[in-house]
Design brief:
With 91 residues, this protein is an alpha+beta fold. 34% of the residues lie in helices and 21% in strands. It has a three-stranded antiparallel β-sheet with strand order 1-2-3, with helices on one face. Strand 2 and strand 3 form a beta hairpin. The protein starts with 13 loop residues before the first helix and ends with a strand.
Amino acid sequence: MKNGFDFTTATILQWELDAIHEALIEQEISMSDHAVEAARQDHIPLVKLLETVLVGIATSKDLLNNALDRVPGINFEYRLEDQRLIRVKVA
């Protein structure tokens, strides 16, 4: 992404979401092997992962050097047609 993230705050900023959506539309977002394999194992079409980022709810931001050692980025949640809730991180 061109502008990255603002890791000085846990607040999800509108410009971050705009940049993520622009990167998605411009096909500048790639899926990790982990995400592809997890989706395959759970029988989730890959397009649903992209849909989660595009129309899902941005729920939280993992900051750099967080206590849980999570990859920094913004987490999105989306409910599938079968009512499963999925979470996708844009890092």
